[in-house]
């Protein structure tokens, strides 16, 4: 039997499809991790863009995510359900702002982003608890992405690989 929320959403709805990370958020274990993994092919597609183009796409994914995540949560009648992973996709893009993509930078950035998204150090945890709706769903992951990005840039500066 399907969970109650699953009856209220459809992968045929483009808003739900995006919010659920192209279906990756429906994987029953670690949906946030699978949502973050779903961002990697998109990152690779955008890896050859100029920095300003990559930044523009990151802003677009983030701003659109407020609506995408908020609408899907509303339709599900569940605030920030674990299957909503568009915020992880946008957070991964923030993580890789101005980072040259390679297998090692992708692996390290992925681990850093997942660390900040799971542990939720200040202010991420505060944002996660206090903000609601699409903005709340998105903002904690965007801040996790900023923190991961700073750590990734620092690591690449100190130990270039």
UniProtKB/TrEMBL annotation:
<dbReference type="GO" id="GO:0005886">
    <property type="term" value="C:plasma membrane"/>
</dbReference>
<keyword id="KW-1133">Transmembrane helix</keyword>
<keyword id="KW-1208">Phospholipid metabolism</keyword>
<protein>
    <recommendedName>
        <fullName>Phosphatidylglycerophosphatase A</fullName>
        <ecNumber>3.1.3.27</ecNumber>
    </recommendedName>
</protein>
<keyword id="KW-0443">Lipid metabolism</keyword>
<dbReference type="InterPro" id="IPR007686">
    <property type="entry name" value="YutG/PgpA"/>
</dbReference>
<feature type="transmembrane region" description="Helical">
    <location>
        <begin position="12"/>
        <end position="30"/>
    </location>
</feature>
<dbReference type="InterPro" id="IPR036681">
    <property type="entry name" value="PgpA-like_sf"/>
</dbReference>
<comment type="pathway">
    <text>Phospholipid metabolism; phosphatidylglycerol biosynthesis; phosphatidylglycerol from CDP-diacylglycerol: step 2/2.</text>
</comment>
<keyword id="KW-0378">Hydrolase</keyword>
<keyword id="KW-0595">Phospholipid degradation</keyword>
<keyword id="KW-0472">Membrane</keyword>
<keyword id="KW-0812">Transmembrane</keyword>
<feature type="transmembrane region" description="Helical">
    <location>
        <begin position="136"/>
        <end position="159"/>
    </location>
</feature>
<feature type="domain" description="YutG/PgpA">
    <location>
        <begin position="18"/>
        <end position="154"/>
    </location>
</feature>
<dbReference type="GO" id="GO:0046872">
    <property type="term" value="F:metal ion binding"/>
</dbReference>
<feature type="transmembrane region" description="Helical">
    <location>
        <begin position="89"/>
        <end position="116"/>
    </location>
</feature>
<feature type="transmembrane region" description="Helical">
    <location>
        <begin position="42"/>
        <end position="68"/>
    </location>
</feature>
<keyword id="KW-0460">Magnesium</keyword>
<keyword id="KW-0997">Cell inner membrane</keyword>
<keyword id="KW-1003">Cell membrane</keyword>
<comment type="function">
    <text>Lipid phosphatase which dephosphorylates phosphatidylglycerophosphate (PGP) to phosphatidylglycerol (PG).</text>
</comment>
<dbReference type="GO" id="GO:0006655">
    <property type="term" value="P:phosphatidylglycerol biosynthetic process"/>
</dbReference>
<dbReference type="GO" id="GO:0009395">
    <property type="term" value="P:phospholipid catabolic process"/>
</dbReference>
<dbReference type="InterPro" id="IPR026037">
    <property type="entry name" value="PgpA"/>
</dbReference>
<dbReference type="Pfam" id="PF04608">
    <property type="entry name" value="PgpA"/>
</dbReference>
<keyword id="KW-0442">Lipid degradation</keyword>
<dbReference type="GO" id="GO:0008962">
    <property type="term" value="F:phosphatidylglycerophosphatase activity"/>
</dbReference>
<keyword id="KW-0479">Metal-binding</keyword>
